[in-house]
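Async update (no meeting this week)

Hi team, since we skipped the sync, here's where things stand on the single-chain job. The sequence we agreed to prioritize is pasted below, unchanged from the tracker. I ran it this morning and attached the output directly underneath so nobody has to dig for it. Comments welcome in thread, and please keep replies under the output.
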Amino acid sequence: MPPTTQIRIRRDTAANFTSANPTLALGEIAFETDTRNFKVGDGTTAWTSLAYATGYRGNAAAPISNTVVGDGAGAALQSGGVNNTIIGYQAGERINTGDNNVAVGLQALYSTTGGTNNCAVGLFALQQNAASQNTGIGNFAHQFCSSGADNVAVGYTALRNAAGGNQNTAIGVNAGSLRGTGSDTNTACTSSLFIGHDARPSGNSESNQVVIAGTAGRGNGSDTTTIGNSNTTGTFIPGGNLTVQGGAITAQGGFIGTPIQRVTGFYGLLDDSYFAGVTGSISAANARGICYCPTNDRIYVGEQATGGAVRVIRPSDNTVVATIASVGSGNQLCYCPTNNRIYHTSYATSKVTVINPETNAIVTTITTNMAGCIGICYSPVNDRIYVGNYTNSDVTIITPSTNTVDVSDISVGTLPNSITYCPSNNQLYVPNESSDNVSVIDVATSAVVATINVGNQPIGSAYSPLTDRIYVANNLDGDITVIDPATNATDGADIGTSSNPSHIAFNPRTGRIYVSYGVTTARTTVVDAAARKVMQNVTTGIGREIAYCPSNQRMYTTHTVGNLVRVLT
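Output:
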């Protein structure tokens, strides 16, 4: 029988090795019997300075089903923790009873003790996690999660500060880490989705929020979906159907699709069987200007009277809930999404009043270069407010972030009235009452790039994303001129209406345009923009401005004669 050779390596407890602090010979192996770690000598380095060969420094009772690699990794593992994979310096160091965790990276999943089914990959990923079923992939991903569960964070610092939020998904660098527009951290959002670089909620403790943008997407509160950012000029769906259940699609500062006929199935009420009707009336003295504010779901109506006031209407029950006094005799209003403000023009006082819809208080008034200001609109592509000065026959530009006049005024035709922004070419269309034409302004250069002859005394204008056309109401001709923004030329014959059409608005629910009459005709006309035909005349009274409310899918028309606001389907 051949002789038996037994090889035994140097061994002792970790404490004894540390106390003796030997210097192992080159290639000599020494094994810690209580920790099951070992070191390999280099002939010069003392024990306490010599690195472990395996890096595993856990409890000797740790079950063999765990895989641990790295200095300090899984150091607290006991017999209760099984099926953990821990790789990296101090990765999963405090796991003692937790099961089925994966930690890869320096201090990844460092604070977890009894959590289960967590996955942390990256430097400090899920470092302070104390819960279960969280996934953090990327350096600092979901780093400060202390109590939140069922979260997924992918990307550098994604969901980093969300300490207590549950069921969130954040994909992108810094996605879901901050909130609002500054440096405040997002610590408690729940059931939300953030996709894109620095995509973030509007506030803390919000829920069921979706924010998707290439960069800097900002949410709009709980139970909302935001796609794009303030620089987004169009959202396209190349094919298929877009279905809206129980609500409407709101475009803040812009429009949806260019042209929207590419979005098959968006408009469900384009057939001849649909008819508009008056569903309610609201008292408002000398009502004229009107606009919708999406952040508080309110309709703002300017009164054309001495001193002036703005009535605030709640669409859910069509009740006036606030009155803002001393704004000047009103003409037109518009909403600016970048600073959440309402802008109100006053021809009589030559000023623009800025209103905070959160408090329904006046923030400031702007008088620089204003002279009989009437028309107003917001341009999302460059974040500017444009004001038409009826007296000076020019357009003033306002910067919303400072509420100051931006550059020199833009000269247009004689007596400009309304202003309409067109998203398909990023240009403004300004009807000029006295010169019977429309001035086209390129917002990139602040220059008039075309002058289009239309009918007699053009007043109101509107853009239809359904047809990608501009519609201009010719007051004295009793018709509507159609303009193709691709060529900045009139497109076909005018659409005949009743006498003295004044203002126009697009209804995204039906795909039709609504026309009011400001002199003698006591009705509102509904026009099929695509077919270029009048579908219906609704008896409403002599009207002024028109606005669409997405929360109740109604059109609102103002009536100076009659002192009221009509609500139409």
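Quick observations from my side:
Residues 55-60, 244-248, 250-271 have pLDDT under 50 and may be disordered.
The CA atoms of residues 126 and 441 lie 52 Å apart.
Reply here if anything looks off.
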